[in-house]
Amino acid sequence: MSTVPVIAIDGPSGSGKGTVSRRVAEALGYHLLDSGALYRLVALAGEEAGLDPDDRDGHAALARSLAAVFTFDEQGNERILLEGNDVTGPVRSERAGAAASRVAAWPSVRQALLERQRAYRRLPGLVADGRDMGSVVFTDAELKVFLTASSEERAHRRHKQLKEKGLSVNLAALSAEIDERDRRDASREVAPLVACEDAVTIDTTSLQVDSVVKKVLALARARIPAPRAEED
Ligand code: C5P
């Protein structure tokens, strides 16, 4: 069993996972794994390489050799680089999300990303955000959280986020896309989106982000002993 603590935060898109994971990682000084971004990058790299969208082996090979860097610019905004090029905008697009959910259904792509994800487990600890963090990648996580929210609320949140980015998207179309992505993620044969038996489920529909973060931090503090101060 690893001595590096992991907090696995899984759930469907729009459940607040991304924001909550980032805030919890910041509060604890932990590393952060945004596993969804890896699937998005594989889909994007496939497009850039001109792969046939159904080429499973080609996408798995790209997943094994993905040259991705997650960083922040001087203003503190996240920057995602692929082969040295800034692809933050395209990675966060709805298109990349939908494309990611297609490649993520393939076992060879999931397998190719497994060790890369596990390599994020470094001291002092890791917050891992995704769909199968607790069920597959970090089955021995000290804390597993499953965030949910009604599908209407999730579509509203995503709509607001996109509007803030200056993108205009039709709410009904967005809602249909989210439902389709959920259906695909929940029904795939490998690592479907499910709450593990040992996960704590938090319904965030009527909760503010702050209170979800507080709940997760309280659970983490109860389960993960604070590191002992160095003895001199
Ligand atoms: O979380 P995000 O929206 O970035 O994820 C994009 C897609 O990647 C999801 O819809 C899902 O299909 C896939 N994914 C996954 N397993 C993960 C993280 C994301 O299958 N651990």
Task: Report on the architecture of this protein.
With 232 residues, the chain is of the alpha/beta class. It has a single domain, classed as P-loop containing nucleotide triphosphate hydrolases (Rossmann fold, 3-Layer(aba) Sandwich). The protein has helices at residues 17-28, 35-48, 56-65, 88-92, 94-103, 107-118, 133-137, 151-164, 171-187, 209-223, and strands at residues 6-10, 31-34, 68-72, 78-82, 85-86, 126-130, 143-148, 200-203. The strands form two sheets. Strands 2-6-1-7-8 form a five-stranded parallel sheet. The chain starts with 5 loop residues before the first strand and ends in a 9-residue tail after the last helix. The model has no long low-confidence stretch (mean pLDDT 92). Cytidine-5'-monophosphate is lined by residues 13, 35-37, 39-40, 97, 100-101, 104, 130-132, 181, 185.
Major sheet summary line: 5 strands, parallel
| Assigned CATH superfamily | P-loop containing nucleotide triphosphate hydrolases
**Corresponding CATH architecture:** 3-Layer(aba) Sandwich
How many H/I helical runs?
10
Helix/strand-derived class?
alpha/beta
Taking all residues together, what is the mean pLDDT? Answer: 92
The best one-word shape is globular
Unique ligands: cytidine-5'-monophosphate
